[in-house]
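This follows on from our talk about sequence and fold. Can you supply me with one protein entry, sequence and fold together? Could you add the entry underneath, on a fresh line?
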Amino acid sequence: MAYYEIAQKVFDQEAEALAKVAEKLDQNFDQLVEQAAAVTGRIILIGTGKSQLIAEKIAASLSSIGSPSFAVDAGTAYHGDLGRVAADDLVLFVSNSGETQEVLQALFALQQIFPDQLQSVALTGNVNSTLAQNCQLVFDLGVTGEVDLTKMAPTASTTAVLAFGDALLVALEKQKNFSRREFAKYHPGGSIGKMLLQRVKHVMYTKVPYVNQDTSINEVIYTISNYGIGLTLVLEKVGGKIIGIVTDGDIRKKFLQVSSVKKSVAADYMTKGFISIDQNQRNQAAWKLMASHNISNLIVTGDQKEVVGVVTIHEVL
């Protein structure tokens, strides 16, 4: 069997396992969503080993939609990190067997610390386990078996927990009416923040190249190359009014159409007029405008409709 066929089989088996876990979800999931949305503290996940790594990812995802969350390793929890848990937190304990010693120790210790206040949830593959029997809310994420060759390495079981975390994330987004704009607030960096939060004036080039309509093509190419933004605006010979734009793409497209390249000037390659955007528009609007016109740059205008810069698709993405 080819290796890609093994990979396809793994995908099929894990997809089947997830479908069976999904069938076991019921109104308890609704209760968890309401608890998670109403919690005044944090959402804390406690696991160990591979379960801890999955818990870290779930916590990071929930935090990204404004639900403060973090994961605690069960081993270190029992040696001092239980102090990170407060009475108003919602605690999810992750253990496929439901009998992981470190996870159980953390659970019982927290029940002693918060005898009447602990909100405990079990994510387990064994609803008859010690963990399940001692948590207020229990989710059966059990799979029929792991998909690796030994049937022992956490594969389908950890995928089920990961998918459960994603489902909780999406349900909380729905409960909160969470929007893309709100998502961007928690992701001000990177491409997400740049696209949804920053405005064109934050990323535009403020040094704009200009040539006259009778500027030689050699000078036009030099100007475009010198400024490094792939274009130059073209001014009317008399009066200095902006009448068009020449991009490096225009030159490539029209080069063979010009009868005498040596004598050609900016006007021979120019596109009359230009597509512009206000400097206060968000980068997402700039990207959509470029996409709708199948172009890669925009002229940026100020409050008085004057040209104040140039923005390219590279700056808004």
Q: What stands out?
A: The chain has two domains: 3-178, 200-316. The chain has a mean pLDDT of 91. The longest strand covers residues 90-95. The radius of gyration is 30 Å.
